[in-house]
Amino acid sequence: MSDERPLPLARLGYAYATAVGLLWGSVWSTGRVRRVDGLWVFRGMPRWTFGRGGSCVGACYLTADNDGPAVLRHERVHRDQWRRYGLALPILYFLAGRDPLRNRFEIEAGLQDGGYR
């Protein structure tokens, strides 16, 4: 995580996003739910309930089965990004572009760990 200071109200946005992730994961997960280094990991999610190989929402990672150690290391960086930017993160992520090789949030999280290289 960089030394950037969190945006104002980021903590509130992070808490809200985490609550949404916990609710979404609790409703749709059919697999094991576990906590790994402060990240709630919901396996067994239907593929339509998340993007790409999985999605991080606040402190929750939602996936069907993509939860190896490298991926979880990548997703913990996204969790830290949620902490830093709060609800501004989805907007900033969108503005950074869908190409993970150019998206600054994916680059910071680690392209190799995220399975992009």
Compute the CA-based radius of gyration.
13 Å
Question: Quick one: biggest sheet?
Answer: 4 strands, mixed
Helix-strand category = alpha+beta
Whole-number count of domains: 1
Order of neighbouring strands in the sheet with most strands: 1-2-4-3
Distance between the termini: 21 Å
Count of helix runs:
4
Number of strands: 4
Low-confidence stretches: none
Shape descriptor reads globular
Strand content: 5-15%
Task: Give, in order, the helices and strands.
Answer: HEEEEHHH
Mean pLDDT: 96
Which range best describes the helical content: under 10%, 10-25%, 25-40%, 40-55%, 55-70% or over 70%? 40-55%
Oligomer: single chain
Protein name: Fe-S oxidoreductase
Transmembrane segments: 12-30
Keywords: Membrane, Transmembrane, Transmembrane helix
Please describe what this structure looks like.
By secondary structure, this protein is an alpha+beta fold. The chain has one domain. It is 43% helix and 12% strand. It has four helices and four strands; from the N terminus they run αββββααα. It has helices spanning 10-28, 69-85, 89-96, 104-109, and strands at residues 33-36, 39-42, 55-57, 60-62. Strands 1-2-4-3 form a four-stranded mixed sheet, sandwiched between helices. A hairpin with a 2-residue loop joins β3 and β4 (60-62). It is globular. It starts with 9 loop residues before the first helix and ends in an 8-residue tail after the last helix. This is Fe-S oxidoreductase. It comes from Leucobacter chromiisoli. Keywords: Membrane, Transmembrane, Transmembrane helix. The chain crosses the membrane at residues 12-30.
